[in-house]
Amino acid sequence: MCSLAESTIADRLLEAGVRLFATKGYPSTSTREIVEAAGVTKPMLYYYFQSKEGLLAAALSHFLAPFHERLRQELAQQRDAYEQLIEVVWAHLDFCQDHKPLARLFYALYFGPDDQKSLVNLEEYTAPGHELLMQAVEQAHTAGLVRPDCQHDLAMALHGMINIWVIAALTGSEPLSRELAQRIVNDLLRGYRSG
């Protein structure tokens, strides 16, 4: 078991790495810059993460594990399926709002050059969130909110709307809120027509 000091060093490296990867890009960030930003020595990075690539993978795991746990907790709540969908969408938006450097990093890796995509298997990190969102959609189907042939489409549409709004928030043009989560769910379930 690592001590509090060791945990703090690892956390500082993770936070510095994510912040620098998000602002400079993964390829342009040197290990020297990471350790300087974390206030530690280069051997500390290698001790905890073996490499810059190891730090990247650990950062994604470190930050996404609590997010997936939050989604599990939301799904475990006994509430109306409609409210459940809103809370699951809000959990996505809220997490990205609270972890903007990580969200920037994720989108940079996802939409970036192919050589960056080979650094980590992003599917490994996104699959649990997708499965949990699909559980919320299945609950909505069971409650009669979604036709059986539309479950996959609704899950994809929710993912798409979440991504669009997070990208808008990262560019500074749109705030993320629970009201927005409700609007996304309402619009996708009820449509965009007037009246």
Task: Characterise this structure.
Helices cover 77% and strands 0% of the residues. It contains ten helices and no strands. α4 (52-76) runs parallel beside α8, α5 packs antiparallel against α8 and α5 runs parallel beside α9. The termini are far apart.
Which SSEs are present, and which pair or pack?
Layout: H1 4-24, H2 31-38, H3 42-49, H4 52-76, H5 81-98, H6 100-111, H7 114-117, H8 122-142, H9 151-170, H10 178-190
Short recap of the structure:
By secondary structure, the chain is mainly α. The protein has ten helices and no strands.
**Which percent range describes the beta-strand content?**
under 5%
Rg, Cα atoms, Å: 19 Å
For the residues shown, what is the average pLDDT? 90
Distance between the termini: 60 Å
Overall 3D form: elongated
Low-confidence stretches: 1-5
Number of strands: 0
Q: What sequence of helices (H) and strands (E) makes up the elements?
A: HHHHHHHHHH
